[in-house]
Amino acid sequence: MNRIAIFCGSSAGEDPVYYETAYRLGEILAARSIGIVYGGANVGLMGAVADGALSRGGNVIGVLPTFLRPKELGHQALSELILVESMHERKTKMNELCDGIIALPGGFGTLEELFETVTWSQLGLHDKPIGILNINDYYSPLLLLLDNMVSAQFLKEVNRDMLLVSAEIEQLLQLMDSYRAPSVRKWIDREDLT
Predict the structure, then answer these.
(1) Which of 10, 40, 70, 94 is the most exposed place for a label (fewest CB within 10 A)?
(2) What are the beta bridge partners of residue 74?
């Protein structure tokens, strides 16, 4: 992977482990010469991952909607800051610039970005690895919901397994490096209907 998109909160969370791990992720990606594209802010986990990468000379591209610039405080030390007009344009640009995705803890925006990206993969619009860095078991309740979606037959297990999950940065990156998109996607084969 040459560049990873990072989806994460503009808040730091209540436990320092969230900020520390986000910063460490930035450091590790920079040490591996993997660039970062993210939401462009200098606050919260967004700022932490950018600062971690920049501290090691990493390439960090921010994509920030103009209406969020006063709220999320665009990072001034990035390799490049791209201003866009909408949230949809932000996600589209980040997707164009990356060849893998990692979600860190965050709120509604992070979940929305994660699920739109995994839906695109489910529909066969891209084959990029999508990872969840499950810091402090933050995503564990969500993973139980996904398992329930499989049990209730609203989600195929092969599609649920497109989300690569680990609490450890190095293990998650290994999972992403070896990822191969499933041949079965969202649509049911005609043979399955007989």
Answers:
(1) 70
(2) 41
Q: Which residue range(s) make up the domain with 29? A: 3-176
Q: Is 76 helix (H, G, I), strand (E, B) or coil?
A: coil
Check which CATH number belongs to the domain holding 144 and give it: 3.40.50.450
Look up residue 61 and give its two tokens.
């591209």
DSSP string, 4-60: EEEE--SS--SSHHHHHHHHHHHHHHHHTT-EEEE--BSSHHHHHHHHHHHHTT--E
pLDDT at 72: 59
Split into its structural domains, the chain has a count of: 1
Rounded CA Rg of the chain:
17
Which tokens go with 14?
A: 């209540």
Order of strands across the sheet that contains 130-133: 80-84, 60-65, 35-38, 3-7, 101-103, 130-133, 163-166
Mean local confidence (pLDDT), 109-133? 95
- Closest of 132, 173, 166, 135 to residue 17, by C-alpha: 135
For residue 187, being part of any structural domain is answered with no
- Report DSSP state, residue 192: G
Q: What is the DSSP letter of 188?
A: P
* pLDDT surpasses 80 at 188: no
Q: What are phi and psi of 103, to 5 degrees?
A: -105, 130
